[in-house]
């Protein structure tokens, strides 16, 4: 039995239609598990990088455990932009009333 852990690699793509939106897939250029409607909304995926999730403890924004789980179960993970801070949202709403 091989004691080496299973390596989890993924390819990360940036959306050309949605700012700060990223798509993680198990294999580079393989979008076969991604729903067609999501791909249409996402736009033409622009390759960013390959990542070995086994060698990382965290990712910049996405929860690494959720990414691993989604890749295993669904074949992809969609990272949406972080929600605006409540205070920042309040300032934006206030400024639109001026």
Walkthrough of the structure:
There is one protein chain. The protein is α+β, with helices and mostly antiparallel strands. 29% of the residues lie in helices and 21% in strands. The protein contains 3 helices and 4 strands. A 4-stranded antiparallel beta sheet has the order 3-1-2-4. The chain is globular, with a radius of gyration of 17 Å. The N terminus is likely disordered.
Structural class of the helix and strand makeup? alpha+beta
User: How many individual helices?
Assistant: 3
Strand order of the largest sheet: 3-1-2-4
How does the overall form come out from the CA principal axes? globular
Major β-sheet profile:
4 strands, antiparallel
Written as H for each helix and E for each strand, in order along the chain, the element string is EEHEHEH
- How far do the termini sit from each other? 68 Å
Name the helicity range: 25-40%
Outline the fold blueprint.
Elements: E1 9-14, E2 22-25, H1 36-42, E3 46-52, H2 64-73, E4 76-79, H3 86-96
Antiparallel strand pairs: 1-2, 1-3, 2-4
Please summarize what this structure is:
The protein has 98 residues and is α+β, with helices and mostly antiparallel strands. Helices cover 29% and strands 21% of the residues.
Highlighted features:
alpha+beta; disordered N terminus; four-stranded antiparallel sheet; 98 residues; 3 helices
